[in-house]
Known about the structure:
By secondary structure, the chain is α/β, with parallel strands linked by helices. It has a domain at 42-75 and 91-181: Oxidized Rhodanese, domain 1, CATH 3.40.250. The protein contains 4 helices and 9 strands; from the N terminus they run βββαβββαβαβαβ. Strands 3-8-7-4-6 form a 5-stranded parallel beta sheet, with helices on both faces. Strands 1-2 form a two-stranded antiparallel ribbon. Helix content is 24%, strand content 17%.
Amino acid sequence: MRRLRKVVPLLFIGVFVPVAFASAAEPPQEPHGYKMDDFRSPTPATLQGAGVVDSDEAYEIWKKGGTVFVDVLPRAPKPPNLPPGTIWRDKPRKNIPGSVWLPNVGYGALSPEMDRYFRDGLEAATSGDKAKPVLFYCLRDCWMSWNAARRAMLEYGYTAVTWFPDGTDGWEEFNNPEELSQPRP
């Protein structure tokens, strides 16, 4: 059953007309490796070896349960040169309820520490079961989730990987439930 997206009404000759905007550009092709820069840009429509879902399908998977949802949105670090007494507040992250937030694991190259953090986070979230379904997301037009899903399959051996390219942007368009989230330590 198709749920309704938020629609922006436009005033046209005294009548509100709901308008859906779509991009006419073709999505890029999958690269041979990981995306190494320009992470906030159009993503491919596919990820070889993984399932790819839209917002409706992600919602149905979430509702059914049994799949680990992994958010890989980066988190800005606290600036090192803040004046003494400056209060630093991390930007709040509204997330798909029950998700595990593993920030900064979607870069094209990971440091050994970040690689270990990603491996350990996935292992904890799946109880070490590499066949457990895992769904990766970030924001729309964000390569971080594409890279993370690819790495989980090719380097870490996860076999039931799904990628949700619209991420929380697509999730919010359907007024789906959200919760404030904190990164996994």
